[in-house]
Structures are given as C-alpha cells and as structure tokens.
Design a protein that fits this description.
Elements (H helix, E strand, L loop, with lengths): L3 H9 L23 E5 L9 H5 L5 E5 L5 E5 L9 H5 L5 E5 L1
Antiparallel strand pairs: 1-4, 2-3
Bound molecules: iron/sulfur cluster (2 copies).
One iron/sulfur cluster binds next to helix 3.
Length: 99
Amino acid sequence: MPSTRLLNMKKSVNPHRPTALPGSAKLNETGFWRTQRPIFNEELCTGCTRCAKLCPDACIIMRLNKEGKLKAQPDYDYCKGCGICAAECPFSAITMKPE
Ligand code: SF4
Ligand code: SF4
C-alpha cells in the first residue's frame, strides 16, 4: 500500500511539464520524454532476454505468447526511447521509429 505522501506526489505530477519528482521510476512515468519508439518484431524475437537485462529503465517485460514462446514487450509508459535495446538485440528484432 503506497504511503499518503507518495499518493500526494503522484497527484502533483503535471504531464505537460517535463520534470520528474524524486521517487521510483514506477511513480514517474517517463515515456512522454521519448522521441524515438522501439518497435519489437515478435517473429524475429527469440526470447533471449538480452534487451530486458540491458534496458536502463527495466521497462521490457518478457511474456509467453499464444504459442507458449517467450517474447519481449516494452512498457511504453516508462520507455524513454534510448535505443539501447535496438542496438543490443543480437537478432535485429527491434527497430527505432520516430514518434
Ligand atoms: S534481445 Fe532481441 S531477441 Fe532477445 S529478447 Fe530482446 S527482442 Fe527478443
Ligand atoms: S528504448 Fe531504451 S528505455 Fe526503451 S525499451 Fe529500449 S532500452 Fe528500454
């Protein structure tokens, strides 16, 4: 259960002002900073988890798809568009596109 202080801080975040309050990345959604969006190609993704381990915002989630295969998916609420995942994917499964 978040503390009252944390809840008040969350309410005070203005999405039109490019600042972030002290706190965890979960409290401060940083996806609106992004100018480039990583697009994940599920067919090329082998589920190696390299991108999820290297993402500085820990916003890549590994999930099982309908066939039970592990695939990477970004959480765009927190992805800042740094491009590290696209640069590091050994299977070229991620491409960066302008927002
Ligand atoms: S690094 Fe590439 S292949 Fe590995 S999980 Fe991420 S997207 Fe999939
Ligand atoms: S672009 Fe950067 S922040 Fe976004 S998912 Fe890739 S590594 Fe993470």
